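Weekly puzzle thread! Below is a chain. First person to post its structure in token form gets bragging rights.
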Amino acid sequence: MKSLSVFLLLAGWSITAFAQQVPVIRATSKTVSIKDGPTFMKNTWTIEPETKPDIYRTSAKKVVFYTDVDSISVHVKPGQQQDFYILLNGKDSALTRVEFQPSRLEMLKKAKKYNYADKRELPAFTYLSPDDEALKRIRRELKLDSIAGSGNEISQMINLMHWVHDIIRHDGSSNNPAVRNAIGIIDVCNKEKRGVNCRMMATVLNECYLAMGFKSRFLTCMPKELKFDDCHVINMVYSTEKQKWVWMDPTFNAYVMNEKGEVLGPQEVRERLINGQTLIVNPDANWNRKNSAVKEQYLDNYMAKNLYRLESSAASGYDQETQQAGKWLTYVQLVPLDGLNQQNTKSENLKWNSYKTLITNNPDVFWAKP
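Winning reply:
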């Protein structure tokens, strides 16, 4: 306890007095499990002594931290922060703080308001024709007609989504491959026996949909915070039979339905979450065929966080995000009125892709039918 003792002496505190004010627990491993309310999350937290304080935010009333040798129970109250130290290997002290924050669903409900009168100039969304030679190659080499089957539009969309989920393993920490198109991503996964993140999975499915003649975009779903460690990317694909966008998520093998079993699109899912209406996730939704994607965790928690801001490319096509000098990409982002970013941004890179992000508060523009 040398470093912590020195810290206390320099601060003019005795160890006894300090222990009465800020609890200390021990650890010999950097990974910590957390019970957040009724939810147990194994090895979900990493001890970082250099981060002071390292803040854990929760809407639960009680949180329990479990190190490999110790534990601490923290009662969470709005407006009050609860501090404790984790002493790693008897020498590195990590100040850890627990703070209350409203649930992600409550935060999403406060982001209900848009401005349907927002007339900022935006490019029309475009979709690459299935007659494009690169898309024809994808359709032929990946045998997409056989995978999609001969059923109706929705069944074909679901079959293609299931297939991408089954042939590609999700790995959120993996590096993006150099070639970012359907055939290239699948080849890298097979040759290197590795997975890719949700954006790459959605890229593969997007090109498969376009190759089959379906209008499709991959949709980046983000939280309110402008700096974040996690977001999610899914697909929105247009059904001419249903005259609507449909939610397809290859990472979780998931689509979403209402109480009648009708498939829903991202706009409908967001609105139903906010209004407390029925949402049903397909029973075979899962992550890497290991963990089921149940509605409470997948929608009420994870996607409630990530449906705050939504972004997609203005031009949906082939090999969109493969890095190339002089290449400009334009994205359109739908932001609620209380969003933290309300201005267009531009980032120019002389070596790789450059970006423009155009903001709108008008959902009618963002969800425009193709």
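Puzzle host: Confirmed. Bonus trivia for everyone else. The chain has two domains: 2-101, 107-366.
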